[in-house]
Backbone:
């Protein structure tokens, strides 16, 4: 993303969920429900209330179920200045989403993924003003929440960093690394849980 408001995205095959799907192989079905700007539990007064992950989650789960696993990779957009929430609240919000998955009865397991640290750089620096401070330690909060709930956890920031172009998004190389790491995490988690199939 070179300009604020630019809607261009990487080709599907280069985005980490599809990289993960390719690494997992044809015996897996990976259903991608990504949406730019999606929050955990917040209606976005600027980009639209439909960005609220909690609002759409039940319908998404029931339209695609049964599922062996749901991967929740949210939290970056909650760090926007307009929401002004701390890391612990973001972790708890992801936990609430994970509990909603469990309560739905259509998915066996969840992996909660903590996004890498946001940097206040480039064209999105104003939108994410203060995000570095608000997000400090979020991986610890989210890891603890995943452990409390008994779900899987991946710290994406241990494997990739945001692109300095805008301080938020990932470049092609980061998508490739993350996709490979997530494939490994899914295999290991499903092996432990004894399931296979739809993610």
Residues:
């Amino acid at each position: 993303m070179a300009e604020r408001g630019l809607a261009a995205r990487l080709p599907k095959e280069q985005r980490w969920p599809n990289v993960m799907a390719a690494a997992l192989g044809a015996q897996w079905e990976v259903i991608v429900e990504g949406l730019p700007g999606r929050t955990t539990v917040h209606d976005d007064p600027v980009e639209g209330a439909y960005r609220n992950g909690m609002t759409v989650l039940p319908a998404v789960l029931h339209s695609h179920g049964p599922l062996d696993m749901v991967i929740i990779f949210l939290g970056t957009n909650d760090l926007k200045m307009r929401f002004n929430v701390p890391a612990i609240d973001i972790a708890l919000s992801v936990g609430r989403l994970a509990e909603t998955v469990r309560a739905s009865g259509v998915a066996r397991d969840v992996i909660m993924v903590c996004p890498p640290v946001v940097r206040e750089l480039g064209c999105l620096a104003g939108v994410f003003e203060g995000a570095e401070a608000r997000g400090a330690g979020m991986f610890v909060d989210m890891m603890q929440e995943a452990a409390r709930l008994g779900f899987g956890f991946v710290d994406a920031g241990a494997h990739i960093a945001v692109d300095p172009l805008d301080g938020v998004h990932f470049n092609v190389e980061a998508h490739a690394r993350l996709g490979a790491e997530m494939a490994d995490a899914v295999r290991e988690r499903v092996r432990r849980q004894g399931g296979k199939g739809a993610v």
User: Anything to note?
Assistant: The mean pLDDT is 93. The chain has six helices and three strands. The first helix runs from residue 16 to 24.
